[in-house]
Amino acid sequence: MAYDTGYGIKGAKAPKWEIPIWIDENGYALDKPIEIDDYHNKVVVMLGFQSWCQGCHKSGFPSLKALIDIYKEEANVQFLAVQTVFEGPEINTEERLLELKKQYQLSIPFGHDTGETHGRTRSNIMYHYRTGGTPWIIIINRQGIVVYNEFRIGLTMAQDIINKALAEPLSIDTSSSTPELELEFPMRYPMKVFMYNKITEAEGIQLIREVLERLQVPHNNWTSKLSRKGNYRSYSVETTIDSRPLLYTLYEQLQKIPHTIKVL
Predict the structure, then answer these.
(1) Residue 67 confidence (pLDDT)
(2) What average pLDDT does the segment 90-99 reach?
(3) Shortest CA distance to 162 belongs to which of 91, 56, 72?
C-alpha cells in the first residue's frame, strides 16, 4: 500500500507525533495524547498499520508481537502501534483498532491517527516521518534519533538495531538545569557485556579485557553466565571509571567487539 516516494527521515531528530487519540495498555482511552517526550532515554519501536492492510496481518503484527516477547523484560524499550490512516477511513476506524488490539493480545498503547486534527488527508505520522504505507516500522534511539524508518523489518535486523540503540549512551537533556546524569567520578561501575555464544568463555573474557587494558580501565571480579537456551553469554566485570568521556568511549569500544549483542 504505497503512498508517496522519497520515504523516510532516517538519521534525523524524531519529530513530534501529534496523534490525538490513544488507548493505553489495557484498552482504556487516554485523556492526554502520548508524545515522544514521554519516552525520554528509551528506545521506541512503532508499528504503523491499517486494519484492512493484509501485510500488517501477515508480517506487521506477528513481528511486533515477537519483538515484544523478546524484550518483555527490557524496561528501556517501548513498543507502540499506530493506525496511520491514509485511505479507507470509514473502515480503518477506532473500533477496528480496538478489535485488533484484542485479537493480537498486545498490552501496549495504540494510537489512531487520521491527520484530520491538522487539516491533513493522511496521518500526521506519515506526514512528519515521510512513511510510505503499511506495515511501516519506525525505531527511535535513546538520543531521539530515527535509526530505522522503512517498510517492514526482519526480526534479526530489528534485534540488531534495538540492541545497538540500547548500548548507546543516554541522551543529555540540555534544556534542563539538572546536572548531566549526576555521576561522580571516579566511580566503580559494574559493566555487563552480552555476546553470542560463538566463541569460548575464555575468548570472550580476553576480548573484553583487551579493550579495558587498551583504555587503561582498572577491572576485577569477572563472572559469566550462559543464557537458558545457550545462544548467548553475559560477562560481568567491576570497573573503575574516572571520567564521563571514558565511560562513553568504553561503551562504544565494547560494542564493536565481534559477536557483541549489547553492553550495559
Answers:
(1) 96
(2) 93
(3) 72
Given a cut of 60, whether residue 158 has pLDDT beyond it is yes
Pair (42, 135) in one structural domain: yes
Q: What is the rounded average pLDDT of the residues 193-207? A: 90
CB within 8 Å of 76: residues ≥ 6 apart: 41, 42, 43, 142, 166
Here the cell at position 71 is 524484550
For residue 185, what is its C-alpha cell?
A: 567520578
Buried b (16+ CB within 10 A) or exposed e, 193-231: bbbeeeeeeeebbebbeebbeeeebebeeeebeeeeeee
pLDDT(109) > 50? yes
Sheet containing strand 136-140, strands side by side: 21-23, 110-113, 77-84, 43-49, 136-140, 146-151
Q: Are 159 and 210 found together in one domain?
A: no
What does DSSP assign to residue 145? B
pLDDT band, residue 181 (cuts 50/70/90): very low
Could you tell me which residues come within 8 angstroms of residue 252 by beta carbon, excluding any fewer than 6 positions away? Answer: none
The domain in which residue 77 lies consists of 21-167
Which residues lie closer than 8 Å to 176 by C-beta, 6 or more apart? none
Q: How many domains does the chain have?
A: 2
